[in-house]
Task: structure prediction
Amino acid sequence: MDMSGEYRLDLPRAQVWEALNDPDVLRACIPGCEELEQTSDTTMTAVVVQKIGPVKARFSGEVELVNIEAPSGYTIQGEGKGGVAGFAKGAADVRLVEDGDGTLLSYEARAQIGGKLAQLGSRLINSTAKKLANAFFENFRTHLSGRAGKSDA
Amino acid sequence: MSTGIGARVRRKEDRRFITGKGRYTDDIRNDNQAYAAFVRSPHAHAAVKGIDKAAAEAMEGVIAVLDGHQLTGDGIGNIITGWAITSRDGSPMNIGAWSALATDRVRYVGDAVAVVIAESPALARTAAEAVAVDYEPLAAVAQPVAALASGAPQVHDNVPGNLVFDWEIGDEARADAGLAAAAHVTEVEISNNRLAPNAIEPRSAIAIHDEAEDHYTLYTTSQNPHVARLVLSAFYNVAPEHKLRVIAPDVGGGFGSKIYIYPEEITCLWAAMKTGRSVKWTAERSEAFMTDAHGRDHVTRARMGFDKNGRITAFKVDTIANLGAYVSLFATATPTYLYGTLLSGQYDIPAIYGTVKAVNTNTVPVDAYRGAGRPEATYLIERTMDIAAREMGMDPAELRRINFIKAFPYQTQVLLNYDSGDFPALLDMAQKAADTAGFAQRKAEAAARGKLRGIGYSTFIEACGLAPSAAAGSLGAGVGLWESAEVRVNPVGTVEVLTGCHSHGQSHETTFAQLVSDRFGIPIENISIVHGDTDKVQFGMGTYGSRSGPVGMSAVMRALDKVEAKVRKIVAHQLEASEDDIEIVAGEARVAGTDRKMAWHEIGLAAYTAHNLPADMEPGLKEGAFFDPVNFSFPSGCFICEVEVDPETGVTEIVRFVSADDFGTIINPMVVEGQVHGGVTQGIGQALLEQVVYDESGQLLTGSYMDYCMPRADDVPSYAIAHGCTPSPNNPLGIKGCGEAGAIGAPPAVINAIADAIGTDDISMPATPQKVWEALHRARPAVAAE
Result:
């Protein structure tokens, strides 16, 4: 399953880049994220609760940042194990391009699911993944605009 | 009312089933019952780097967490296949090892790596979730054609190119010559969609180990408990046969999927020994989708040649059969001796050559499913006939008629020797019942309503009554395929019939009793059928391949012959008459032309009191028999299906379905009609609705009824059923078998009707509305534009 999207953020690229590398921001913005701990400069462990169709599971996994080209983008990839629910793995290439005084964020993501998730949720995975991606970037935008507000004050 | 052969006797077993009193494996509970849950791979292919059981073992109520290294360490043997196939280059087949619990590598989604034994099913499942398995995912392959490509992921290291065998049948040079001489050659490429068996009762097992006697009991959902005991003893080393009792109580449907001895039964027996507890496991429906042996999954290219008059000159077939990750019990026989040998269909084909490449993939094992090989052969032949008829501008019924075999016995070019049949008569019968003469008018009337009406034929033959033991053995079978029976007349005259067949929907408790009622004229209530318990029945090969009638009932008939002979001797002795003058009618034995007679219960009592028996006669009235058929039986039929396709939506409605069958002698027409209804409905399911889908990475995408569509009542019409009868010359009843016919014959009838309706053969199974709509639009843009 592949998907892509584009968002405009009213913040300079450097600030967006900083936020994309901040575990606290990621924890706050990833839908269903219960834990996210940085384990090295480029790796994190995460626990995320997700419901896909009839399957609700707590995924624990590792997230890694690769292809880092500050401040214009990186690839974030991860794999989560959901016990008997199966597994999910995926990667997203995130690009940041300056757009006036704002930033254009675009992504191309690939995801794969396995086990019970695939057996019961395969029809729903595209729409669910799209929804989750949208939720993440909406959260991210909201989070950043909060910050922007603060810096203005 | 008669309760003999040919009577519509109501099913004796229905009272308990309809009132919810059936006793299935999961209904049975023992005092020290523990429950098993399996830890299964979510990956289609992965190396198992480690299993951390600590968290699960620490949970309260968990009795044990056992893995594959412990299982193989205890000497439990790998799972076997029962039929050895030789490749066309003379080499033996390549079989990858299959342990009941995987040790170093998992090869399909659902492959079990460990089992948790706990105090409740819920605890066992929760603990199974806590078992942490460290998998290293490997590249996987799920599609049979892709598995043969160079560089494809290797499912087993010792199966090069994933090729289990490359088998052939027939004469290639002759087939090539026939094709070269043909006036017309029809080429087809056909897939036979993969199916999940979906018995209403999921698989279940209860294993008990009696430490005092070192004796095991296994309750299980089996179609063949004696075969299960034999294999569990001889190959899996669970226990010697005399220390293992296998009971298959009421079983809710099998369709082939309950022939095999699966990892779960083996593991439960072993776990019962390890834990000292009675261990029970019942599959969830999700587990059934993942682990029950699937059916079909063939990809075939074929060429059929015709002379200028439409006579077939040759048929050449290349098939790739997906066997899944491991080679299951009958998996090698299904695409070879149950498929290649049927490639002549009902037709006089002078030259046939077929090859079958059987391949491993990272999917659940594929094995026999209702029809087993014969539906795949029938679909191929019958689609080819229709496509050829369309190409040559001939009437498909006429093309069939001119190619029918008309004289018997008939030796095909693919081993089988057909013993009987009357194919033109079945076609006539079906055409009359289907009112094919009025079809053009119905089509016009449908067109006026905006519907596309089509008609499709399927004229099919099966080889049933598995099987002559010597023939099976010469072709590689690991067992004989005779059947046994024992008839016990009790001192009060009631009768028990012990059979090695197993009833899991076939109505044996009624139809087997009809044989006794017919023979002695005693009430059917006084007759019990005993089956499904290795401690009660001496030995038997079970029920599959439409064998209970032709083989199982034949054994009963032989035992009845012996009982009758002894009854005659007893009565003749007691009434001081000649044996030849004794008539057995309506529960009495009388001396013909006199009023001297003995009631049935008096005969039983005389046999057991033994006060007045002939001098050389042993007391008692109990006889056994084994029956080994000299040939397969060959049921045949003609199905005619009429459909209406809605060009707006692509929805197909089956508006008429006629079955004209030749099952030989029919014991109970109502039961036979039920078998036809069920079989045809399964065939319609395959044609229109059902398909197991694995994605390219080997993930099962159809893991529930949300994504796997079974036929419902409103998907099928009211069936019209007619019977012809050419009795089988090879068994005492002349019976041919009826269990699989519907599933074998129906799919091509449906698809041929759709192809006729939409005017294109560019359609495959399952013919979903989307596929039909797309085919219609590809073929007839003008219609689509209307």
Observations:
- The longest helix of chain B spans residues 548-574.
- The mean pLDDT of chain B is 96.
